[in-house]
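Before a colleague's protein record goes any further, I have to sign it off. Alongside the sequence sits a line of tokens, each denoting a local backbone shape. I want your independent view on whether this chain really folds as the tokens say. Where you disagree with what is written, explain briefly why. This is what I was given:
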Amino acid sequence: MEQLGKILIVDDNEDVLFALNLLLEPYAEKIKVAVTPDRIEHFMTTFQPDIILLDMNFSRDAISGQEGFESLEQILRIDSQAVVIFMTAYADTDKAVRAIKAGATDFIPKPWEKEKLLATLSSGIKLRRSRCEVNLLKEQVEVLSGAGSGVEESIIGESAAMQEVFATIEKLRDTDANILILGENGTGKDVIARLLYRCSPRYGRPFVTIDLGSIPEQLFESELFGYEKGAFTDARKPKAGRMEVATGGTLFLDEIGNLSLSMQAKLLTAIEKRRINRLGSTQSVPIDVRLICATNADIRHLVEEGNFRQDLLYRINTIELHIPPLRERGNDIILLADHFLQRYARKYQKEMRGLTREAKAKLLRYPWPGNVRELQHTMERAVILGDGSLLRPDNFLFQASSPRPKKEEEVLNLEQLERQAVEKAMRLSEGNMTRAAEYLGITRFALYRKIEKLGL
């Protein structure tokens, strides 16, 4: 039987809790129990169960089930997609129908039949997982249909590099681990962060972002931790910081490589202690956030130079996700170009159907240093200035950089240069093939072929 994930059991009968714990332990990832419904919010925030087994009757009365319905309402307020299975010794058809209408997933009478209970829980965990998948698909559909703005369209992609990103996101959908997203400017790291949030157990709870590249260092602490009235001259009323607001949910720290060493130390302390102090307060506030961080910097190089704390890196990169630059995504360039063309043709009321073959070839040859963001702006400009039904090569004017003249002694044997570059990339990446390929600006599969060819 497949694993049932994390289960929370809420029942005031300790014998029932003991029996269910014993029965389900071999099948569940983890089990938590609560004897009163007032502990539900705490466990949903800290434990984040996949399935909740909820008794309908507690101390108030024996048979109405009203407390169970009140608890169900509370659960669905916290997580509208929670899988809740009611349990009661006073089952009847009307109550079962009312439970399903109220948002419960299923209904189990006491005493239960073991096989039926396990089958119900198995269906419940499948439902939970399918809801996560639906959330991921919805996010992709929104992006493909042009919802939102900015570089959200970077998620459009059929290339092997992007399929690898999608596959990794799928593997991470049930995890609460901290994630570090690496990639060049304009690749859509913020979109990937939102996708990770949408298919995580914390979906439906706060998603709070901080762009560390746009916040002055002197304001960072008050933004992250908040402040009390009178903490500084303009603090006329208390304000919760982003970490406090994100409690129970996800905090996205964009461009974390820009953080100063002193602020890195304060962030690390907050992560380790899971508590913060607002500026001007001596009272600590507990926090519970899942961190997703992003940077376009070579973060390991920053660590080597002493500009980024290694202990903080260990805290934020339980999982690393590398977003490929646009130049490595092949025909995705044309998919994105077509998408932007249609969007801006509608916006500016132009009768444009597509690109000529020569125009597509020109777009594929260009290295796109600004990635998807640059492609988006390029297509908008071309649509505004273009005439006719098709965009041609002369609609796209790229700034060509002239190659640096080399001294004769700098020109070496090509195979020797290639060998040195591959060896250096492998050293810098400490043997990590994906990272080494990123340093070299090639795909991982191309790197494998080069290593085989060079006999490394």
